[in-house]
Amino acid sequence: METDRRPVTSLREQALGIIRDAITAGELDEERIYSAAGLAKQLGMSLSPVREAMMSLVTEGTVEAVPNRGFRLVPVTWSDLEEITRVRVLLAVPAVRQLCDRAAGHVGSESAEPADPVADGSSGASEGASGAPDGAEAADEPLRIQLEQLREHAAATAIAAEAGDATGFFTHDRRFHEALLEYGLGRRAADISLRLRDQSRVFRPQGAVDEVNTTSARELSAIVDLIEQGRADEVTELVTRNLYFFKRTAPVPDES
């Protein structure tokens, strides 16, 4: 059983997470109206937290309420996916660049004085195996911890993808990108990106999606590696490609 360090959540939050993952994975049909009671029975949960979760999704714009009937997914089109992804990229790129700067020692303690290579007789800062200057890790201990947490999320995502566990894949992939944005830009940026992510959908048959899941999951560990090495241009390209996951799972529209 996986050990999860996240704090214990309420029944509402548990229901919200399960329903979000089901929507993202394409397990709920846009054409169907779902009652809170029916979803509660399907999830094996009591009615109140499921109803509260669905109302939260209404507020977020992911579902809409149908009076006297239940809830329906807000339709997402090909152009919607493109717009959602573009905005998420606008947030993710500065986030990973900020983390790369920290890893390279460009952003440290405000009180730290820059080393003088002439005064200490050296020709410049030496570099460790990661390509970052020696001492950069010590100057930013929180970053080391954050990278470890990102690696844990990346590993859990890959394990789920390899096992064909779509729900687990989407759960851990969401946590990875949530942490990436929060560590790079802050909580508000993470919340904005997650809300957009939760409006994305998978459209292809499960077999095709499984292959995309595995490729996408493997990219997460590479993203962390590139951040640790301070390779901003390369990680910018990779995180952009990774965020286009949902476009890779969407059928190409017929332009004829």
Classify the secondary structure makeup into a structural class.
mainly alpha
CATH superfamily of the largest domain: GntR ligand-binding domain-like
Treating each run of at least 4 consecutive H or I residues as one helix, how many helices?
11
Overall strand count: 2
CATH class placement of the largest domain: Mainly Alpha
Quaternary:
single chain
Query: Cα distance, first to last residue?
Result: 50 Å
**Contiguous uncertain segments of 5+ residues:** 1-6, 108-139, 252-256
Strand content: under 5%
Strand order of the largest sheet: 1-2
Order of helices and strands: HHHEEHHHHHHHH
The name of the CATH topology of the largest domain is: Four Helix Bundle (Hemerythrin (Met), subunit A)
CATH architecture of the largest domain: Up-down Bundle
Rg from alpha-carbon coordinates: 21 Å
Please indicate the count of domains: 2
Overall helicity:
55-70%
Mean pLDDT comes to: 81
Largest sheet composition: 2 strands, antiparallel
Shape by Cα distribution: elongated
